[in-house]
Amino acid sequence: MTDLPPDLPRLRTLETWLALTLDRVRRQIADLERRETARQHGEQARPPAPDWMLELGLNRDAVPVYVHAGSCWNAGGRSKGVDRSTALRALAEGVAACPHCRPDSELSYLE
Hints:
The chain has 111 residues and is of the alpha+beta class. The protein has two domains: 7-46; 52-106, no CATH class. Helices cover 46% and strands 13% of the residues. The protein is built from three helices and four strands, in the order αβββαβα. A four-stranded mixed sheet has the order 3-1-2-4. It is rod-shaped. The model has no long low-confidence stretch (mean pLDDT 89).
């Protein structure tokens, strides 16, 4: 027993519908593959996370507020990556160490 129609016109209609559906599926697959390729390219092109960050004040002339480790979850959006010597210098100049990531401990900075 078959689940296909017995006559040619309905089989042709079914064939057309299946071809159109297959084209839609293939377009969707191609679209998703392009998105995945773009996502992978974005991950590979992303610059590495900084080792240390300075969280800046509210205006551009304000002094830094905190020194953070590069992986700190609490670093604000106004943070910029810096090198080790800049982070140490900021701590020495009185910029507070983040109380969550404790960069002063990681930098072996003693007051």
